[in-house]
Amino acid sequence: MSKTVVRREREHLYAAEPKSPEGQRLSRALLIYRDAERLQAERAQRSSGLSGMDLTALRFLVQGYRDHRDLSPKDLIVMLDTSSATVTNVVERLVERSYVTRARHPTDRRAHYLVPTEDAIRRVDETLGGHHSALVEVIDTLTPEQADAAAAVVMQFADALGRLDDAESR
């Protein structure tokens, strides 16, 4: 019984269906894609052996490292939109697992920044690489026109959702 509800949830919009059959097909495709993304995020978290918050923090630290940016615990507070206490616990867990080291800030002796280890970089790449590779593989099969059209539609969706956030923050 409850699995039926879950399955139907994946097929339902909390608004009127699009008017055209093509629009309805696109709507279903978006719901299926959203569900596939959710399942991949859950798979990534399970395979990483980390909590969702810890994996997200590690992803941000690895990306910062790749961008040659020194990230501090204060940066993680902002990026994770959470408290100092939560970030302290996340950092402690990542240090205990040898995924992060603390490095002294070069000019401020009181401050430090967080550096992902090679194990952390490998863990993030192993956990998320397949997901991203699968998407790029499909993208690379598209014609330039298909890719442009898909990008335009996805940006319209993102803009529409962004306007909801803007309206809520007023």
Secondary structure blueprint with pairings:
Layout: H1 2-9, H2 21-48, H3 52-66, H4 73-80, H5 84-96, E1 100-104, E2 112-116, H6 118-139, H7 144-168
Antiparallel strand pairs: 1-2
Written overview of the protein:
The chain contains 7 helices and 2 strands, in the order αααααββαα. The protein has 170 residues and is mostly helical. Among the domains are: 1-48, no CATH class; 52-121, Orthogonal Bundle (Arc Repressor Mutant, subunit A), CATH 1.10.10.10. Strands 1-2 form a two-stranded antiparallel ribbon. The model has no long low-confidence stretch (mean pLDDT 90).
Strand content: 5-15%
How would you describe the oligomerization state of the chains in this entry?
single chain
Quote the distance from N terminus to C terminus: 41 Å
| Category from helices, strands and their pairing | mainly alpha
**Could you give the order of the helices and strands?**
HHHHHEEHH
| Radius of gyration computed on alpha carbons | 20 Å
What is the CATH H-level superfamily of the domain at 52-121? Winged helix-like DNA-binding domain superfamily/Winged helix DNA-binding domain
**CATH-defined architecture of the domain at 52-121:** Orthogonal Bundle
Residue-averaged pLDDT: 90
Helix content bin:
over 70%
